[in-house]
Each structure stands twice: as C-alpha cells, then as structure tokens.
Amino acid sequence: MKEHPVNSTVELTWLGQMGLLIKMGDTTICVDYFATPTEDRLIAPPVKADELVGIDAFLGTHNHLDHIDHEAWKIWAKTNPGAKFIFPRAHMIEVLEDGVDPDNAIGLNDGESATVKDCVIHAIPASHEFLDRDPETGLYPYLQYIIEGKGVRIHHAGDTVRYEGMLAKVSQYGDIDIEMLPINGRDAGRYRQHWIGNMVYQEAADFAGDVGAKIVIPGHWDMFAVNGENPEDFADYVDAKYEGKIKCIVPKIMEKIIYN
Questions:
Q1: What is the per-residue pLDDT for 7?
Q2: How confident is the model at residue 4, as a pLDDT?
Q3: pLDDT lower than 50: segments of the chain
Q4: The dihedral of CA 66, 161, 181, 158: what is its sign?
Q5: pLDDT at 8
Q6: Residue 226 lies in a domain
C-alpha cells in the first residue's frame, strides 16, 4: 500500500448525474459533466458550457452523452484551448472530431496514467454493465479514474457494476479518501428499454466500505426519471451498516464539498 503524502485542502462541486468539478491546489478538473440541455433531463445544466472556463482537464469516463458530452466538448476545445481531454482511448476518433487538439487528447486504457500539472489521473476498466474489451486492440470503452493530488485520492467510478478484481484495481493506488459511485442500479424495466445498468445502492455502499473510503458521494440518481434512485436510502444504508466509519454526503447541485 502506498503511503499518503501530506494532506491539503481539496474542493469538490457536484454538477449533477456523475458530474464533478475538482479543485486540487492550482489544478481544476471537470469529470463527466453533462452540460447540454435536453428535454428529458430533470436537472438543467448548472453552468452553461460556454461559461465554463479555466479548466485544466476535462475527463470523460465513457462515450455516453451524460458522460462525454460531445456538444460541450466542441465548445470547451475552443474556450479552454490549453485543457487536456482525458477519455478511453477507444473513443479517440470521436474526440478528435470534436475539435480537440491532438496534443491535448489523452486516451487512456487500463493501468495507464496521465499527469495534469500537479495531479495524476489513473485509469481502470469499468463494467457498464459488462466488462467489454475489444479483443483486437485490448481497449476498454468504459473507464473509472483515480484522481490524486495535494495528498488526496478520489475514486470516480463512472458507470459500473462491481466486478471481480475491481477492488484490487482501485486499491493498488493507495488509500481512497473520497468515493463517487453510481447508485441507480438495474432492473427488468430498464433492460426492456435498453438501459444498461450500474450498482444498486447497497452494492455501491459496500464497495465504499470495502475500499475503506472516508467519504462517499452517491451519483447517477437525479438526471432522468426512469433511471434514478433515492439517495437517502443509500445514505441510510451507509449509516446503518458502517456506523460512522464512512461519511456519506448526498450532494446538492453546485454545493461545495471541502476536504482536508
């Protein structure tokens, strides 16, 4: 297990769904922000795409609209010309078509890392809902990220179910301070609509417990009426089972979460 460096203050702002704005010292990272207005979303984008500036890196976990928002990435490629764009390498063609400078397009795969200023982003596969992998290229279309900087490690799970070996892949990078996990689950009704699923909230809570996270934040519960979950049930389960060992924060849009 790797030792933690000296801790410092990290600020997180929740943007809805799995969207997260992370400030680690002088580095600002935006993960999975769905910034395009659509008729079926329940929560309007809290920041207009063309107003989001000063970002050092945009991360997308996979090529679904609510995670890699291509219309927004086209805007950010122009308004944040120095930003790095980090995503599964399986989607390199689509990202370059967004107008991202090839020098700023960083496609990752399992076990690979990227450095952005004083932060490091590590990639591991996600299983959404299956652990898909191209047999010819070895590329995974769905990723999770370990983001570390200023002595803090954040695990952003993207969209995933728990799979054999996932805990070991996350834990190899050291102690996790903050977990952000999808809790919307999966069921027959969504299968019939071809909605692939994620962890149910009990699975997400137990993963946070197994990894030893200090804080857990539920995601993927507020955006679509047919694909959500009650985050208070998640918080209650965490409280009942882990009895204060994990702090659960049910986020509010644009709420700042300060971690020392």
A1: 52
A2: 47
A3: 1-6
A4: negative
A5: 72
A6: yes
pLDDT of residue 186: 86
Output the six-digit token pair for 31.
């993960």
Q: What does the pLDDT read at residue 2?
A: 46
- What is the Cα 145 distance to its own chain's centre? 7
- How many independent structural domains does the chain possess? 1
Q: Pairing state of beta strands 256-259 and 105-108?
A: unpaired
Q: Which two tokens stand for residue 257?
A: 């979460």
Tokens of 216: 């857990």
Residue 41 belongs to some domain of the structure: yes
Whole domain around residue 137: which residue ranges? 10-259
CA-CA distance, 15 to 176, in Å (whole number)? 21
Burial (CB count <10 Å: 0-12, 13-18, 19+), residue 132: middle
CATH number at residue 146: 3.60.15.10
203 by Cβ neighbours in 10 Å (0-12 / 13-18 / 19+) ranks as middle
In 3-state terms the chain splits into helix, strand, coil percentages (rounded to 5) of 25, 30, 50
Distances (CA, A) of 81 to 32, 55, 71, 75: 18, 9, 16, 10
End-to-end C-alpha distance for the chain, whole angstroms: 21
- pLDDT tens, position by position, 197-222: 899 999 999 999 999 999 999 999 99
Q: By the 8 A CB rule, do 162 and 170 touch?
A: no
Confidence (pTM): 0.94
Short-list 149, 162, 194, CA closest to 28: 149
